[in-house]
Amino acid sequence: MTPEFDSMKYADAILEADWARFESYSRRVRKINNEGVFSIWELGPGALAQVGTSRPPSTPYILPRVTEINWTETRDTGWLQQLIPLLSPSLKSFGLKMMSDRSTSVTDARVVLRHLACLARLKLERLHARWPDSVATLDAAFCDVLDRQKNSLKSLSHQSFNLDERLGTYLSQLPNLVNLELRFVDVNTQTEEDFKNFSNLLASKCSGLETIRFSIP
What we know:
The protein has 217 residues and is of the alpha/beta class.
């Protein structure tokens, strides 16, 4: 592929016979990281969605053995939608980074998180999420993922908005958490004592917690 290559598209419909060769490669994929990879070329709109809808019933997941996905939203719309067909119960590590606060991007990110929360047999060990300070509407969708994955999560990195009771409630229900990193945005009403009490609460609820890191702008 060269800088002159604009996008990857399908010239013909994907047939069931095409899947034998595809599956011989797809089972080898363990890690996906799109940051910096697609600066030269990009998938055509709906390319992965077409793969997802064309797969035979015997192939429930495009990448059945993928264990790690780190996905950065680009400035182009539609990228987050491309992520959904790649999700699989085999995932152990998932990272999502939003670069804009456009309403379409927020909606797509919420759909991705809801889909992740509902993925059967999923046992995430690492969950990292970051979005612009102005986006507060994703918190509920993110908490749904925490609720579903509370018994398997070991590493959590998240941008929060304030030190509230709801956040403490969700985090204190992660018994196997080892590493925690939180970036707070709205801390105007919090004191150093508040953060100290918050840390003590987590330490008492999460017995295996080894690292707590707070980032305050």
